[in-house]
Amino acid sequence: MRKRMVSPSFFSDEDLIANFDAWGRLLYVGLWCIAEDSGCFEPSPLQLKMQIFPGDNIDPKDIEKWLAKLAELNKIIFYEIAGKNYAWIKNFHKHQTLDRPSPPNIPLPDWLEWCGKEHFGNDRHKWHYKFTGKLFDDKSKTIRRQVEDVSPRKKEKKERSTSTRRHFDDMSTKEIIAKFTECIYPGITPYDIDRLTAYIEDGLEPDLIIYAIEEAAANNARRMSYIMKILDRLRAAGITTREAAEAEKAGRKTITASHRSDDIKMPYHRIVRAPRGDAASPPDAGSAALPDKLSPRREDADSSRDAVSLGNADLPPGQRLAEAWGFDK
What we know:
It contains 16 helices and 5 strands. It is mainly α and 329 residues long. It folds into 3 domains: 8-155, no CATH class; 166-261, DnaD domain-like (Arc Repressor Mutant, subunit A, Orthogonal Bundle), CATH 1.10.10; 273-281 and 288-329, no CATH class. The strands form 2 sheets. It has a 3-stranded antiparallel beta sheet, with helices on one face. The protein has a two-stranded antiparallel ribbon with strand order 4-5. Strand 2 and strand 3 form a beta hairpin. The longest helix has 20 residues, at 242-261. 20% of the residues are buried.
């Protein structure tokens, strides 16, 4: 089972409403999920019952009748290869957007051709199914036109999700992918490629995108959001080239350096204490002025025994030291 898109027109299709009940219409929706990316599936009633109606009491004979009716309404087309029956949903490629489709496991009918690795190598964005021949009647031209109109090469003109294919072959885009893989992380996703190449559509040069990737790596911010933040800032400033971005960065560094040179350096004042054993000596004339009131540490006061005299022996140690230095009591 695969995820598929269901067109709103399915619910108002007159052929389906007139010929099927709710279970029959549900079978038709289930066929789209059962079918491979080619639109082909094996029309085995028992197998379809187990896949689409695993918990419902649906008779495989009813499924066989519904399949025959879908073929009668030209919704599906039966074909046979090597004695085994297969079926193809006619409008499958009209309603499904396939990005990097898978190779077929079920043999393809004569009117379908798989263009994959043998044609485009590992560039899976180019893999697609191509309509090559007529079906059975005059309507074949219309059918061929419907299939070709939604081939992967033309879907890129209709949907933004396939814009990556537009740029993937450009040498500049390959350089962006290589730089991203080298500087950020390996295995860039198609979604990230699409987001980066969108800046090229906005007028930014590929070298500027490479510059943003290098800046993110230099700042150890290896994430897509940081790269986009740089590119958004440059785009808002009208910068579209790498040279202009480097000049803008140099200008910001010059401004930052000038601001730093204008900073006012506050002088550092150091209070000089009298060395141990010379507490009675006043400070030098060239030394920094001491505060009006000195609160010496207890160890300095206790160690200044030579400042003790008969007149101040009864005073506290701190007051004796202040008196010895010539301060008011």
